[in-house]
Amino acid sequence: LEDSLVSQLTNRVGALLDAPDTYRNMRDCTMTYAQDQFSGQAFSDHFWGAVSDLYHRERKYFSGRNVAPIKVGTTLLDCTVQDDSWARVFESPTQPPDLWKLNEEGTFEQLTESLPDKLHDVEFMMPQEVSYDNEGVSVPALLYRGIGDCAVVNIHGGPNWHVQFLWDPFMLHMASRGWTVLAPNYRGSTGSGRAWQIASRFDMGGVDTRDCAAGVDYLLSKGLANRVAVTGRSHGGYLTMTCLTQYPNLWRGGSAVVPFMNWFKSHEDSREDLQHWNIENMGDPKENYETWHNASPYFFLDRVNAPVQLICGGNDLRCPASDSLDAHDKLTELGKDVELLLYEDVGHSFLQIENVIDAEVRRVDFLAKVLERNNVQEHTWRD
Predict the structure, then answer these.
(1) Upper half-sphere CA count for residue 187 (Cβ side, 13 Å)
(2) 97-128 pLDDT, tens per residue?
(3) Strand 150-155's sheet: what is its strand order?
(4) What is the CA radius of gyration of the chain?
(5) CA spacing 20 to 30 A to 318: which of 18, 24, 97, 381?
(6) DSSP conformation letters of 231-279
(7) Distance separating alpha carbons of residues 189 and 197, to the nearest angstrom
(8) Integer Cα distance of 241 and 319 in angstroms
(9) What separation in angstroms does the CA of 77 have from each of 54, 68, 83, 291?
């Protein structure tokens, strides 16, 4: 469970206590328990119990120290102390982010309640940490195991990011429909060391695409699905389109959210800082023309063999909507099955809740349409 929920929490607690031996003992305890039973509330109770024990045992480390005021965040990277209590935003795949307080006597108090009353008794699925082989490397991923023959490969953005054991309503909803969801941390992701993070440099749309597509082989070999769709946001939207153009017969359909598809045009339309990032990771567009061209799915849209959904924001400066608009026009001209959802006054991140809900509902509706329709043939790996 390296670089997962356990590692993130224990790393910060260890730094806070400034006691290496205590950190190692706590890490061993939580890691051992997590390997046996990594499931929602049981793990949460066990972890916070370990924190409580350490808090009382190591009080001497807090004596006379200046500690930070309570700071509320949205990730699991910080833990703060004030007076005789700790406060932290805690979340997991089965628990939305809420503020919890650890009191001096070792009791816990939930200070906020994000989950609506009608969902309190719902048993949300805890994903499994899995890995699968591709080109001699082991690709880590999270797996929401479904009950039918439909699956979705959900590709994270970044690419310097990674899927973690965090609250994700989109993946939980897909799992609630009985679909299997595989979220790979492909080469180029963080969380698995620097070599893994830079493995896609000067080869974006290459190794990362192959790692995502290899996830279908894993799903098929495990008997988890025989019809698979692909989706992703930002860089994940880009990889959705490279998957659809490089492996056209593998997918029942693909939904790309705020993608870019033409490295050249996207580069010209992007902010200066993003242009610097492009050159740093893919080289100069003139000197490396072939690399940029081959990595641009826009030039290979004729290969698409499955329905495509494009979702974009009209004010997106990171992945300009012009890419989606051009791709929609070209796919239409080619006679492909494509739909475009353009949110005129929206940027790269959808901030208004009505836009978030509308886009996600329509994305799920699209995936349901391509996955659950009748007369679907089984996949053939990379045919």
Answers:
(1) 25
(2) 998 888 777 787 888 999 998 998 898 999 99
(3) 128-134, 137-144, 180-184, 150-155, 227-233, 254-257, 308-313, 338-343
(4) 22
(5) 97
(6) EEETHHHHHHHHHHHHSTTS-S-EEEES----HHHHHHHS-HHHHHHHH
(7) 5
(8) 14
(9) 18, 14, 21, 37
Q: What are phi and psi of 165, to 5 degrees?
A: -80, 70
Q: What are phi and psi of 64, to 5 degrees?
A: 75, 5
CA distance 305 to 109: 53
Which contacts of 125-129 are long-range, i.e. CB under 8 A and separated by 24 or more positions? 125/93, 125/94, 125/172, 125/175, 125/176, 126/38, 126/39, 126/40, 126/92, 126/93, 126/94, 127/93, 127/165, 127/171, 127/181, 127/183, 129/1, 129/4, 129/38
Q: Which two tokens stand for residue 79?
A: 């833990």
CA 243 – CA 232 distance, rounded (Å): 11
pLDDT at 73 over 60: no
Question: What span, in angstroms and rounded, lies between the C-alpha atoms of 257 and 236?
Answer: 8
Estimate the crossing angle of helix 353-372 against helix 169-176, to 10 degrees: 30
Distance CA 204, CA 235 (A): 10
Read off the pLDDT band of 68 (50, 70, 90).
very low
Beta strands in the chain (DSSP E): 80-82, 85-92, 95-102, 108-110, 128-134, 137-144, 150-155, 180-184, 227-233, 254-257, 308-313, 338-343
- For residue 87, what are the β-bridge partners? 80, 101
State the average pLDDT for the chain.
Answer: 82
Residue 7 has pLDDT above 90, yes or no: no
Antiparallel, parallel or unpaired: β 85-92 and 80-82 = antiparallel
Task: Output the pLDDT for position 276.
Answer: 93
- What letter represents residue 232's amino acid? G
Distance of CA 41 to the CA centre of its chain: 22
- Residue reference for tokens 């608009």: 325
In 10 A of CB 329, how many CB atoms?
A: 12
Q: 150 is written with which tokens? A: 């439909």
| Lookup: tokens for 217 | 């082989």
